[in-house]
Amino acid sequence: MTGGCGFIGSNLVKYLRRERPGWTVVNLDKLTYAGNLENLSELEGDPQHVFIRGDIGNRELVEHVMSVHGIDAVMHLAAESHVDRSILGPEEFVATNVLGTQRLLEASRARGVQRFLMVSTDEVYGSLGPTGAFTESSPLQPSSPYSASKTSSDLLALAYHHTFKLDVVVTRCSNNYGRYQFPEKLIPLMVVNALHDKPLPVYGDGANVRDWLHVEDHCQALLLALEKGRAGEVYNIGGGAERRNIELVKAILGLVGKPESLIQYVKDRPGHDRRYAIDPSKIRAELGWTPAHTFEQGLAETVRWYVDHPAWWQRVTSGAYLQYFDTQYRTR
Ligand code: NAD
Ligand code: TDX
């Protein structure tokens, strides 16, 4: 797996260790600002989780990891993932998301891996009007440098299938939420700010819509796609929970018992996509995927988790988590 120390990746590593206890998960992660090895502290000493700090763009390293660890399948999650950062500095997004993915695909081809699961995003489809939902055949119209770089990696993966017969499956999911999400993303940012009585910055008019997916439901879908997806196919994954940002922010305030006066409308994100909605019929029909969480229950549990784990996000906001690798891991 790549990117196993990020939000979705760390949830997925733990999910795989529970659901497929016979597997060894080799986790290649660069530990950028978004990579937090503390997310995996409960796996310390687990011989079936092998962490390797490294860049997917480092060809020699990737080839070495593939051969030394006998990699059978790749779940590719490593990416620069935050839209606002891609607007401030797109270059890293091209380096990791495009070039890094290409190098990983090349090494996977050379190694002859049995399957390459490319974790893509619904943002490849661009923005929707007030009705309708993205299907796997919707046109690809990415808006931000982030989504353009993800579209490139998504298409590169499909091209490696088409041209080189690499066994590739692509998944495109909607906005994930859950525990261990870096507090630059909407839900954890709003919870942490609310707990500090700090303003909650809502972009534009707050009427942009996102379709929320619980990270555990996403992990379940990724394992199904890995094991049962058809090579060369794309699967949309969505939680069927469309919410306007402002509704969601108000719900969070209600859950933490803080006043709506904390909401502050701020300048809109440039090129801000108005609405995302996923049609997940294909993965439901073909792979039998059904999400287990309703959004109301999942959001309440998630907010509770942040409220109950101030040490986790305080170490993230203070930057202390960045030292974990040196103090806990390197010394072992
Ligand atoms: P994240 O930013 O929390 O984690 C990304 C991880 O990748 C980090 O651990 C980071 O250290 C690692 N990484 C970054 N550059 C690397 C490199 N060059 N080499 C090795 N590791 C590197 O991201 P996330 O939210 O967990 O998203 C995981 C994947 O899912 C991404 O590919 C993202 O595009 C996709 N996705 C996320 C969402 C979402 O809502 N979070 C939705 C759709 C798709
Ligand atoms: O402070 C904020 N205020 C605000 O109004 C932030 C951080 C966000 N927003 C809005 C922008 C979006 O409409 O909330 C919505 C969600 O924003 P993000 O959490 O930044 O997510 P988004 O831009 O939708 O992208 C996410 O989903 C698709 C992930 O970050 C991507 O990695 C994924 O591909």
From TrEMBL:
InterPro entries, per database record: dTDP_Gluc_deHydtase, NAD(P)-bd_dom, NAD(P)-bd_dom_sf
Group of enzyme by EC: lyase
The reaction(s) this protein catalyses: dTDP-alpha-D-glucose = dTDP-4-dehydro-6-deoxy-alpha-D-glucose + H2O
GO biological process per UniProt: nucleotide-sugar metabolic process
Keywords: Lyase, NAD
NAD as UniProt keyword: yes
Domain NAD(P)-binding: 2-302
Record has Acetylation as a keyword: no
Alphabetized GO MF terms: dTDP-glucose 4,6-dehydratase activity
Pfam families: GDP_Man_Dehyd
Cofactor: NAD(+)
EC number assigned by the record: 4.2.1.46
Family statement drawn from the similarity comment of this UniProt entry: Belongs to the NAD(P)-dependent epimerase/dehydratase family. dTDP-glucose dehydratase subfamily.
Name of the protein: dTDP-glucose 4,6-dehydratase
